[in-house]
């Protein structure tokens, strides 16, 4: 594992978690949006992560030759942002402009508590990756001081 691999791994995780926080913020901002451009309520979005290809493919991680070798991953990447297929919430409010003939309003499938828990999780992951990046930076700095 090279010196800059740890920087790249932490940087990829920081980028992924920042995007995750942006999507969660969008979900929270649209918790009461009953009509989007296509005429339906806002649908909650989630971010899908995938491991970046490392120097060694995953199939070799469990092989006989690599049992005693130190192996490192290649970081994380975002493969997409998907919509949550759970059904919309239905609320009785006949005075709402988007209510149907029975007074039912279809509300977004966003749960504010779930989004706040996800936001805390993303924040903690972001902080952990900053800590890892700072530790790598400190080790690199100390390694350069050895030569003085």
Tell me about this structure:
The protein has 148 residues and is an alpha+beta fold. It has one domain (3-31, 45-83, 110-146). The chain contains two helices and four strands, in the order H-E-E-E-E-H. It has helices spanning 3-29, 112-146; strands at residues 45-51, 76-83, 89-92, 104-107. The strands form two sheets. The protein has a two-stranded antiparallel ribbon. Helix 1 (3-29) runs antiparallel to helix 2. The model has no long low-confidence stretch (mean pLDDT 87).
Distance between the termini: 24 Å
Count of strand segments:
4
Going by helix content, strand content and strand pairing, the class is: alpha+beta
Helix share bin: 40-55%
What's the mean pLDDT score? 87
Low-confidence stretches: none
What string gives the helices and strands in order? HEEEEH
